[in-house]
């Protein structure tokens, strides 16, 4: 012991540890629905995130196994599993970021709106608990239909007196991830360099990728190519649902996208400058109360909702055609939260 204490390697380790805890604040992340198809790989990816110091994995069943498994990974965060409603409060207490992939996924032939009846109730009860146990957390809503579950969450938080529009996010990152991949493939540019904003909402035609703003620029894409890329991005989820043939929807790519978005939230909280991601948030950039667009993240969540930028005629048309559907999905969510 004595020799160890005095050894250069142990003191440099101590120094390093002191340095890292000063520069990287403690952050607790809770995943609700952590034993599911998205929840499990998302738990894994959050365990790999160096900004996370505590990782709470909550589900109605199965979390002890997921938590025991993930907890053996030798990264910074301490992992705990929580199962059943009576443990939800403990899972949420002290959370900085709460990620919600709880609920049922689509089967072939279903729209995201077909999930409303089950998922709306789940989201309502989880958000009621968030308002009680961690009202200041940033909420990353993955459960579909996002176009309605985000407005439901907002209404639940308003009723509880805890609503802060800067802290509620619909996760649309998978649409961005898909748009980038499909664009890179078609334009033949390196995928890791690609940026494409995706605006609107997260279902069918409400997903509007802005390929006119894509970078790097590609001069080899025709109007027909852009139309096809737009449609493929809008139908990307359905492509996976059909390929999985009844075994659910996107889980691995969604976990990746969810981890990217949560990482951006954590960076914002930690004061990293210029963190920008697309997200479905309370918005005044169109006449709709919620809208997905680029958002700058900061110490309090949303720092700035960025405008749409210049749109092509095709995108302008897409914007006008998505508004009625998005409006009615938002209203459906608000009505549900206030009826029940
Ligand atoms: P899954 O069925 O594999 O997992 C859902 C998990 O939620 C299950 O472990 C279940 O026990 C749990 N759960 C159910 N009720 C709960 C409650 N009250 N509290 C906590 N956990 C609860 O489903 P999967 O594939 O993980 O999808 C989850 C949700 O994510 C679905 O609503 C799906 O539509 C949505 N999704 C969203 C995407 C997006 O881009 N935002 C992309 C893909 C899926």
TrEMBL record:
Residues 172-336 form the Lactate/malate dehydrogenase C-terminal domain. Its EC number is 1.1.1.37. Keywords: Mitochondrion, NAD, Oxidoreductase, Transit peptide, Tricarboxylic acid cycle. Residues 28-170 form the Lactate/malate dehydrogenase N-terminal domain. GO terms for cellular component: mitochondrial matrix. One of its GO terms (biological process) is tricarboxylic acid cycle. It catalyses: (S)-malate + NAD(+) = oxaloacetate + NADH + H(+). It holds the Pfam family Ldh_1_N. It is found in: Mitochondrion matrix. The active site is at residue 202. Residues 1-21 are annotated as: Disordered. Residues 4-21 have a biased composition (Low complexity). NAD(+) binds at residues 33-39, 59, 119, 142-144, 254. PROSITE patterns: MDH. GO terms for molecular function: L-malate dehydrogenase (NAD+) activity. Substrate binds at residues 106, 112, 144, 178. Homodimer. PANTHER family: MALATE AND LACTATE DEHYDROGENASE (PTHR11540), MALATE DEHYDROGENASE 1, MITOCHONDRIAL-RELATED (PTHR11540:SF58). Belongs to the LDH/MDH superfamily. MDH type 1 family. This is Malate dehydrogenase. It comes from Nyssa sinensis.
């Amino acid at each position: 012991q004595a020799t160890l204490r005095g050894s250069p390697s142990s003191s440099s380790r101590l120094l390093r540890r002191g340095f890292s805890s000063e520069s990287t604040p403690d952050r607790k992340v809770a995943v609700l629905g952590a034993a599911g198809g998205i929840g499990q790989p998302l738990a894994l990816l959050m365990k790999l995130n160096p900004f996370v110091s505590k990782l709470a994995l909550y589900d109605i069943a199965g979390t002890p196994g997921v938590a025991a498994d993930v907890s053996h990974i030798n990264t910074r965060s301490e992992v705990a599993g929580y199962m059943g409603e009576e443990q939800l409060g403990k899972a949420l207490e002290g959370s900085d970021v709460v990620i919600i992939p709880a609920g049922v996924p689509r089967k072939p032939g279903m729209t995201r709106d077909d999930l409303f009846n089950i998922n709306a109730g789940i989201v309502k009860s989880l958000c009621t608990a968030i308002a009680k146990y961690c009202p200041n957390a940033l909420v990353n809503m993955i459960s579909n239909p996002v176009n309605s579950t985000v407005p439901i969450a907002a209404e639940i938080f308003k009723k509880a007196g805890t609503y802060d529009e800067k802290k509620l996010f619909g996760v649309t990152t998978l649409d961005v991830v898909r748009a980038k991949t499909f664009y890179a493939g078609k334009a033949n540019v390196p995928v890791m360099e690609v940026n494409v904003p995706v605006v609107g909402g997260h279902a069918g035609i409400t997903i509007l990728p802005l390929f006119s703003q894509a970078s790097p620029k590609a001069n080899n894409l025709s109007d027909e190519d852009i139309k096809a890329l737009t449609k493929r991005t809008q139908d990307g989820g359905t492509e996976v649902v059909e390929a999985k043939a009844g075994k659910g929807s996107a889980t691995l790519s969604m976990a990746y996208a969810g981890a990217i978005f949560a990482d951006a939230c954590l960076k914002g909280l930690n004061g990293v400058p210029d963190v920008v991601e697309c997200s479905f948030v309370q918005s005044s950039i169109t006449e709709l109360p919620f809208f997905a667009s680029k958002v700058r993240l900061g110490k309090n969540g949303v720092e700035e909702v960025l405008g749409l930028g210049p749109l092509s005629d095709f995108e302008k048309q897409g914007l006008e055609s998505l508004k009625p559907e998005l409006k009615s999905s938002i209203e459906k969510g608000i009505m549900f939260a206030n009826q029940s």
